[in-house]
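Sequence in, structure out. Go.
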Amino acid sequence: MSFIKENRSLQPRISLRKKIILVLCGLPLFLVLLEVFVSVTKEDLPLIQKYVSYQENVNSVYKFDKRLGWRLKSNYNSDNIQTNGLGFRSSIDYSPKELKNKESILLLGDSMVLGPGVTQEKIFSEILNKRSTNAIFINAGAEGYSQMAYTRYRCNFLLSDQ
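Output:
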């Protein structure tokens, strides 16, 4: 009799465990599907364009991009942020020849990679570039990018000759 009671007391735990696993597996799937839905509908693109256009008028580092929503301006220079001719946060203007002769490492990320508020010489991509002789670290960080924007950014970068 005692064995049956112990066995029954385990059943709710197993059921609860299965529910937790289902929720933990289902939540990321739901978020991925939601991200795909939002990126496919693109109904917020005019709103983003309007906001970024406003930012361009107030001397912001960002400009509108129809695929990404926004990206860094080329050859921008302010107290804290400097971009090169390709629109990456860097004090180095990479030439296509330079990019082909060295290993190029694209650093994708949001504000943690971009480093707003950090002086140009103290962002980690600048430090890595000064220390490396055989690789170029390209800071492609931008505030507020989603996973879909990173994928688009990477595809744009890989499809171009840069």
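Check: Residues 45-159 form one domain. The radius of gyration is 23 Å.
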